[in-house]
Design brief:
The protein is an alpha/beta fold. It is built from 18 helices and 17 strands. Helix content is 48%, strand content 15%. The strands form five sheets. A six-stranded parallel β-sheet has the order 3-2-1-11-12-7, sandwiched between helices. A four-stranded antiparallel β-sheet has the order 5-4-6-8. A three-stranded mixed β-sheet has the order 14-13-15, covered by helices on one side. The protein binds 5'-O-[(L-methionyl)-sulphamoyl]adenosine.
């Protein structure tokens, strides 16, 4: 039985509007990590989905004149189509409106209530009646509702609370004992200093002011707080709290990938709920940065975004995937723009990778009718390329383990750059003029093909279509990373000139 398991999740997205490139960002990174692990022999469970309850969706649906379920169904259809276009290899798509999820969240809530960790109390706040929203003093604008500018009034409503305060010490101890639980480390310090150490307050976990949510079974005028509903997705999908093979196999999750603004929910509320349920905690939560456009976060409510499929149509899926994975150090904020996407595609995919593959294959065809084997006529200038190629997987393993996805790609493209330099330094066109150098020329081309093969094998995790095209041109079958060390004895490329992997895009 395979003991190498890897459970990775994206946040479940709000289907309040169609998804933008910011949502694609997290999902593409999660996909690359999932693919990498699968190729490395892991049994992977990669989950994504949608977080469909709450007042915001209820309001949106009302505005559109449809039921909340009708409203979200449409957006989810669109999201699944987008994930297909981006070749997201998820194993499971959870919707919080799915029956099993609703039932299991209700059971979780009841379990916590029976245990005494959820109790009934009173929620006091400032309420805007037309907006059906609670606000805190600091959120008000000139003392009025920040959404509609009308008067708010102090109200109190009966609500259930979760004893978050009870878990403060345990959380702090857990952070201490598991220094890698929250990453990057700056986010961990932020959680400790801004939230945990100043003291955690009990959390209001039910609402009576709207109905689009999961009802509390024993008090159905209450719906369960949307974050309790949403966070539970990571275990309800596996069958919890029922006995289940999936749960036993994959929980605890290896990695929750989340945006930086929701680290708090995943590293305080979620582990506290799990501690209360006496369930093991996830191994790692990674908080990444945002993609910014024109100085601001890309946002559904600002409407400052293009349908990501438009970029795929114009530049191809691997250009979009590559940009998301390579442009921004994973963890930091980064700028998304079409110009940057074009520059990146031209520089790396078209010049560095695409030209290398076509040049090498064309030389192999021209000088050897496409048949290349290692003639072992070595020279010193080969050493750097051969060494870097044979150690590349070791390096990308480490980078991926540290979630430095952009750096893993940088390393692969560095080897490709070395290949280009190797062509310049070994001057095959000069070797070709001298019959006595024929074996040396074949050795050079063999070394290039081997480096391309290794890079393309690793690139399957990031830009799978491009890797497939390269394998087709090299006339080889490659499956997983086990094949990396298996040198190809003889390349038989045929005489057909390969199609360009990437067309150069016009830069403005
Ligand atoms: N529904 C909650 C998550 C519940 S998880 C149990 C939610 N949804 S969201 O749709 O608002 O955001 C989901 C994720 O998308 C977040 O991690 C958020 O950071 C990410 N992104 C949304 N816009 C983004 C960018 N512009 N850039 C990068 N990621 C962004 O929060």
């Amino acid at each position: 039985m395979n003991n190498k398991r890897f459970y990775i999740t994206t946040p479940i997205y709000y289907p309040s509007a169609n998804f933008h490139i910011g949502h694609c960002y997290t999902t593409i990174v999660a996909d690359a990590l999932a693919r990498y692990k699968r190729l490395d022999g892991y049994d992977v469970f990669f989950q994504t989905g949608t977080d469909e309850h709450g007042l915001k969706i209820e309001t949106k649906a009302k505005e559109a004149g449809v039921t909340p379920k009708e409203y979200v169904d449409k957006i989810i259809e669109n999201a699944k189509d987008l994930w297909e276009a981006l070749e997201i290899s998820y194993d499971f798509f959870i919707r919080t409106t799915d029956d099993y999820h609703v039932r299991r969240v209700q059971e979780i809530f009841k379990k916590l209530y029976d245990k005494g960790d959820i109790y009934k109390g009173e929620y006091k706040g400032l309420y805007c009646v037309p907006c059906e929203s609670f606000w805190t003093e600091s959120q008000l604008v000139d003392g009025k509702c920040p959404d509609c500018g009308r008067e708010v009034k102090e109200v109190s409503e009966e609500a259930y609370f979760f004893k978050l305060s009870k878990y403060q010490k345990q959380l702090e101890d857990y952070y201490e004992a598991n220094p890698d639980f929250i990453s990057p480390v700056a986010r961990k310090n932020e959680m400790l200093n801004n939230f945990i150490r100043p003291g955690l307050e009990d959390l209001c976990v039910s609402r009576t002011s709207f109905t689009w949510g999961i009802p509390v079974t024993f008090d159905p005028k209450h719906v369960i707080y949307v974050w309790v509903d949403a966070l539970s997705n990571y275990i309800t999908s596996l069958g919890y709290p029922e006995e289940s093979e999936l749960y036993n196999k994959y929980w605890p999750a290896d990695l929750h990938l989340v945006g930086k603004e929701i680290v708090r929910f995943h590293t305080i509320i979620w582990p506290a709920l799990l501690l209360a349920l006496e369930v093991p905690l996830p191994k790692k939560v990674f908080g990444h940065g945002w993609l910014i456009v024109n100085g601001g976060k890309i946002s559904k409510s600002l409407g400052n975004y293009t349908d990501p499929r438009d970029y795929i149509k114009s530049y191809g899926v691997d250009a979009v995937r590559y940009f998301a994975l390579r442009e921004v150090p994973f963890g930091s904020d980064g700028v998304f723009s079409e110009e940057a996407l074009i520059l990146r595609t031209n520089a790396d995919l078209c010049n560095n990778l695409g030209n290398l593959v076509s040049r090498t294959i064309q030389m192999a065809i021209k000088y050897f009718d496409g048949n290349i084997e290692n003639k072992n006529i070595e020279e010193d200038i080969d050493n750097d390329l051969i060494y870097s190629t044979s150690h590349l997987k070791e390096i990308t393993d480490k980078k991926m383990e540290e979630l430095k996805v952009n750096e893993a790609l940088e390393e692969i493209f560095d080897v490709l750059r070395k290949c280009n330099k190797y062509i310049d330094d070994s001057t095959p066109w000069i070797l070709a003029k001298d019959d006595s150098k024929k074996d040396r020329l074949e050795t050079v081309l063999y070394n290039l093909l081997e480096s391309i093969r290794v890079c393309a094998t690793l690139l399957q995790a990031y830009i799978p279509d491009t890797s497939k095209k390269i394998f087709a041109s090299l006339k080889i079958d490659v499956n997983n990373f086990d094949d990396i060390d298996k040198k190809v004895e003889r390349y038989e490329l045929g005489l057909e000139k390969p199609a360009n992997l990437f067309e150069r895009i016009k830069e403005n």
